[in-house]
Amino acid sequence: MYTVGKLTKHYRALVMTALLILAAAAWAHADELIIHFLNVGQGDSILIQTPVGANILVDAGDTRAGTQVVVPYLRSLGIKSLDTVVITHPHQDHIGGLISVLEAFPVGQVLADGQIHTSRTYENLLILIDEKDIPFRLARAGDRLDIPGIDEAVVLNPQEPFLKGLNNNSVVLALTYGRIKMLLTGDIEAEAERRIAEGNFVTKANILKVAHHGSRTSSTPMFLEAVQPETAVISAGADNQYGHPHPEVLANLRSIGSQVFQTSLAGTIIMVSDGSSYRIVLAEESREVEEARAGGVE
Ligand SMILES: [Zn+2]
């Protein structure tokens, strides 16, 4: 009976894996860009998969999220290596998980803000990047990144001299795929939003990763009106100690007509685009459906 039980368990795992791959295939076609906003609790982790197979990871949540969420998620997608890892800024809720990511996957290059910060986690991360001899490149406003499979990737922030506070010097990326524009803002606050706007770097975007987990220190009406996002994604932990997202940010987003998705409510949020339109897929929903089906098979 033990053997049968073990086989059944093994079979069930195989069915689950096959169904998850099928589910992944159903999310996207070969010519589509996929952006996963991972549910890492209080923190950020965003995976960009381009139509030609480039994988870019922007942050990896905190240390726990790295081992428990980000690494297993990347493995479940069959990812073997990452072309670029972006460090938006050196706070624990963005970089903590990068240590386990760098230990689990070969990485082509690291793109970072390059701010000085003396936490043990950040020092360990920099030591690991050095030990693994991963090319380390600074991102500065105006830089254009060569990301195979998308039309344009422009750095909007930081600029030197740096603004006050680590958050304001987060790496901000504007991505264009066909007619679809996406803006990833790290944890920038009002000062950086103003500087980006004054430098004429601000662009309209269909999809906005809302800055700093929906904190009221960010997402100023001026910035939101300039970006005009149809879809806003907020990455924050359920019942986090900061009260993110703040009600006034949600109200400001809704007042300009944005549809708001929150990882704390929806789980991992996936954007899929063919360059002319896009759709939002919620990973938890598809996983639940597939689990129910796997149960039925057995
Ligand atoms: Zn943060």
Low-confidence stretches: 1-19, 287-298
| Strand adjacency order, main sheet | 6-5-4-3-2-1-13-14
CATH class: Alpha Beta
Give helix and strand order, one letter per element, not per position. Answer: HEEEHEHHEHEEEEHEHEHEHEEH
Count of β-strands: 14
Mean pLDDT: 89
Structural class: alpha/beta
* Tally of helical segments: 10
The CATH superfamily label reads Ribonuclease Z/Hydroxyacylglutathione hydrolase-like
Whole-number radius of gyration?
19 Å
The domain tally reads 1
Q: What would you call the quaternary organization?
A: single chain
Termini distance?
Answer: 16 Å
The CATH architecture term is: 4-Layer Sandwich
CATH domain topology: Metallo-beta-lactamase, Chain A
Strand content: 15-25%
What best-fitting shape do the alpha-carbon axes yield? globular
Q: What ligands does this structure carry?
A: zinc ion
Percent in helix: 25-40%
Question: How would you sum up this structure, described in words?
Answer:
Helices cover 36% and strands 22% of the residues. The chain has helices spanning 2-27, 63-76, 92-95, 98-104, 120-131, 190-198, 221-227, 247-255, 263-266, 283-297, and strands spanning 33-37, 46-49, 55-58, 82-87, 107-112, 136-138, 152-157, 172-177, 180-184, 207-209, 231-234, 259-262, 269-273, 278-282. It has an eight-stranded mixed sheet. A six-stranded mixed sheet has the order 7-8-9-10-11-12. A hairpin with a 2-residue loop joins strand 8 (172-177) and strand 9. It starts with a helix and ends with a helix. The model is unreliable at 1-19 and 287-298 (pLDDT under 50). Zinc ion binds next to helix 3.
